[in-house]
Every structure is written in C-alpha cells, then in structure tokens.
Specification:
Oligomer: single chain
Shape: globular
Largest sheet: 7 strands, mixed
Order of helices and strands: EEEHEHEEEEEEHEHEEEEEHEHEE
Radius of gyration: 19 Å
Structural class: alpha+beta
Strand order of the largest sheet: 6-18-17-19-16-15-14
Distance between the termini: 11 Å
C-alpha cells in the first residue's frame, strides 16, 4: 500500500496521511475552549480518539511539532502533555511561537496547534536517546529525529548557530551519525532581521552536502532559565547507517532544494520572487513553481504527505489557502499546518514546504 489519505476534506487537508511506515497528522486545535490548559486537554483527548480510530499508539509517536500563540506559555501545555504521552517512550520535538489560524466556526482564540509524526510499523524498532520528560533523539526506520536544540551561551544569532552546530557534532559522534547525512534542518529564529548571520556557519558546517529545510521567524521560548536570549532553535533529521542512499537536488551553499531519502522527498521551504507583492500573488507563484519542480523531478501532487505553510500575516491566510487549493489534488490532499511565521526577505509573505512520497 503506497499512501493513505484519511478523513479527507476535499480540496482542503487530510486529517492524516500514511506512507513509508509513517503517519503525518494535520495540526489540531481546540478553539471551542478558552484557556490554553483547556485547549491542550481538548486536543489530546481528540488525539486519543484518532489514535484509536486509526490503530495508532502513543508509544509510537516519534515527533511533536507544537506552534503556540506564545511559546512562553509552554509550561501550561507541557504539564498536561507530559501526563498524556507514554512516559517510557516520549517523542522528540519542537515548541515555538507560531500563531495558528484564529478564525473557526467554534472560536477565534486559538492558542496552540499540535501535529505528530507517528510510527506505523510495529515490527521496526524505535530507539529513544537521552530520555527525560521528552527525549533528545528518536531513531526509527533509518532516520534520527532530533528535538530542537538551542545554544544560550552566546549572544548573537550567528554565534548561537555555530554553537548549536558544534553541539550537534558532539551528538553525532555520540550516536554514530554523520553531518553529511542530514536530510532536513528546520530553524526557528527570534528575529528575521538577523537572518544574514546564518549563512556563514551553515555553509561551513554542511559543505557539499547541505540539507533541505526552512528558516522562519517563529521564536523559541524566551522565559527559560537561560533568559530572553534564545535566538534560534534548530532541529535536524538525519539518515542513519553507514552509507544511506541520499539524493540532493539543486544544491547551493547551505541548502538543497530537495533531499530524497528512504522513499520520501523533503523540500526546502519555497517563497516567490520579489516582483510578486501580495500574499495572493506570491501564493500563486509558489504553487506554479512547485508544479514546475514536480514535473522536473517526476513527483506527483497526489503523493504530497505533509505541507507546512508559513505566512507573514495569518489574517490573510485565505489568500494562501485559495492558491494551494488550486494546486493540490482535491481527492488526495496532504496533511498540513499553516501558521503565522515570518519568512526571510522584507517583501516575502509566505514560505511553503512539502514532504512528498516518491512512489
């Protein structure tokens, strides 16, 4: 069986897609509740129902992506979340500030959106490393999924990026991984004005084998013991094994346009060229570009598993949703997340990232 799209909203999103021993969930929210605690409880209760419906296990959650209206409120969510997950098998993950869509038929104050990647093949082992309340890294079916890492010992974004990458070097040595096998690098930064500081350490670190990925302004939590100085949280997905078969396409310093591994293509986030000024025209241009790339690389729209849409102003999100509705296969839409998170470039209104099955 290649891909399953389940609980499909025609022309919208699938609630979950199944492929390559993974389940990718659309981000879930609970706007019918008012407080963050109530919304967290509502979301996790809904996931209990969905896991039962789809035959999934909490012990098989590999990765959690949580976008919050304000990541500084994470403790209120975390207390509930860590009671809900399997304490012996906690996922890796990231929690950052990224404003979810605010308008729904049942509420207009959405404080968080929660998405999971879940293992679906019980015959394949799941290994979890440095387990505390969560875990530093989860290894499954040829991929190591790292929790987002920070480096508070430095002040500037560039210095923190260097520090985080040096820490990953230590972890790669510890876990037997290689930096040339990084598939995707997703960085969530505090202030896009400092984006230019990322290129030099990224280029130096990844060399001829840069990952796919995304860098957007979606600030890490600031009210930690480290103080309000965390400039970046960086999460890496890394191929395991001695010689994994990896294909990188359209490689430029610091980033590949797309990385193919283990039957899945991981795209770098795409934005429009500067001549497009509005979210509507930029969204149309990005989808047109993806259509060209899919034809170039032999991908199929019906094989998109997951979509991450980052828009500068969530109040304009319908301009993005309208353009992507024209592009996607209406009968086989991906799972997805759309939040407010500022892309690079003063005029860029969005950045869109796809994960695609190669079959």
């Amino acid at each position: 069986m290649g891909i399953q799209h389940l609980d499909v909203s025609k022309g919208g999103y699938s609630r979950v897609t199944f492929s390559k021993n993974l389940a990718f969930f659309t981000g879930h929210a609970a706007p019918q509740y008012q407080t963050l605690k109530e919304q967290a409880e509502g979301i996790l209760k809904r996931y209990d129902e969905l896991f039962k419906q789809f035959g999934l296990k909490k012990s098989n959650i590999l990765y959690t992506t949580c976008f919050m209206k304000n990541a500084d409120d994470e403790d209120e969510f975390a207390d509930i979340y860590f009671q809900w997950i399997d304490p012996q098998n906690p996922p890796a993950g990231v929690t950052v500030t990224g404003l979810p869509i605010q308008h729904s038929p049942v509420g207009d104050n959405i404080l968080m959106e929660l998405s999971f990647i879940v293992a679906t093949n019980d015959s394949l082992p799941i290994k979890r490393y440095d387990v505390t309340r969560g875990c530093r890294m989860v290894e499954y079916d040829g991929m190591a999924y790292f929790t987002g890492h920070v480096y508070p010992k430095a002040d500037t974004l560039g210095e923190q990026v260097t520090g985080v990458l040096n820490r990953y070097d230590e972890l790669f040595e510890k876990f037997g991984l290689k930096k040339e096998n990084v598939i995707a690098a997703n960085g969530f930064i505090k202030n896009m004005a400092h984006y230019g500081e990322i290129a030099e350490p990224f280029n130096a670190y990844f060399g001829e084998n840069p990952p796919a990925g995304v860098i957007v302004e979606a600030p890490p939590r600031q009210n930690t013991p480290f103080g309000p100085k965390l400039e970046i949280e960086l999460a890496l997905f890394v191929a395991t094994g001695e010689n994994p078969q990896i294909t990188r396409r359209d490689v430029v310093p610091g980033m590949s346009r797309v990385v193919e591994y283990n039957g899945i293509a991981w795209f770098t986030g795409h934005s429009a060229r500067p001549e497009f000024k509005t979210l509507a025209t930029q969204s149309e241009a990005v989808m047109k570009r993806y259509a060209e790339l899919f034809e170039q690389f032999g991908y199929k729209k019906e094989n998109i598993l997951m979509e991450y849409g980052y828009v500068r102003d969530i109040e304009q999100v319908n301009d993005y949703l309208g353009a992507r509705k024209v592009f996607i296969d209406p009968e086989n839409p991906p799972a997805g997340v759309v939040v407010q998170a500022k892309p690079s470039g003063d005029e860029n209104q969005l950045e869109v990232q796809f994960i695609v099955n190669l079959d």
